[in-house]
Amino acid sequence: MRIAIYPGTFDPITNGHLDIIERASQLFDRVIVTVAVNSSKTPMFTAEERVALIKAILKQKRLTNVTVEHFSGLLVSFARKKKAAAIIRGLRAISDFEYEFQMALMNRKQANDIATVFLMPHERYTYLNSSIIREIARLHGNFKDFVHPVVVRALKKKLRR
Ligand code: ADP
Fold first, then answer.
1. What are the strands, taking DSSP E only, across 2-160?
2. Please, how many CA atoms are within 13 Å of residue 154, restricted to the half-sphere of its CB?
């Protein structure tokens, strides 16, 4: 069984992330979306909230070979524990490249047997990231074309508080 993990902050999950998840789920027997807890960023949603949002969407989309977990610590250790053959990352533009290149080579140095696999989303998502969604939501702009309805509701609820 070929297992891949797809790590990220997912604060919150966007349609760009979902595009990558769907592509990965066709390439691997099992995909574990891995929500980072110990990121240096201060998230808008707690790790539990981010996991719950992803779970709800996966259920609706009937992506039965995709699961979600949160993790803290070294990514390759988590990948090993899950017997993953690959780490999935999304590449949007040249601007992603330098950081992703560094991470991929550093992860390979830690674990030579785990490959980083880059997938490109549909071009309609190439300018999309979670921070711009949070910003538009805070400013009461229109973001419903970029995130799942579950996330639209969660963002509105969060910002009402
Ligand atoms: P991180 O904080 O690790 O960058 P993110 O949750 O922002 O985590 O992203 C996780 C992964 O998904 C990264 O590989 C990132 O490049 C990718 N990604 C983020 N947004 C998109 C998008 N719109 N299209 C494709 N990939 C994306």
1. 3-8, 30-36, 66-71, 86-90, 115-119
2. 23
The reply to whether 41 belongs to the active site is yes
CATH number of the domain at 15, please.
3.40.50.620
Closest C-alpha to ligand 1, atom 5: 8
The domain tally of the chain equals: 1
Please give the distance, rounded to the nearest whole angstrom, from the Cα atom of residue 159 to the centre of ligand 1.
23
Question: Which atom of ligand 1 is closest in space to residue 127's alpha carbon?
Answer: 23
Given a contact cutoff of 8 angstroms between Cβ atoms, the answer to whether 33 and 61 are in contact is no
Q: Give 12's Cβ-side CA count (13 Å radius).
A: 31
Residues in the chain: 161
For the chain, the average pLDDT equals: 95
Q: Is the pTM of this model over 0.85?
A: yes
Domain range for residue 106?
A: 3-160
Task: Name 37's Cβ contacts closer than 8 Å, sequence gap at least 6.
Answer: 47, 70, 71, 72
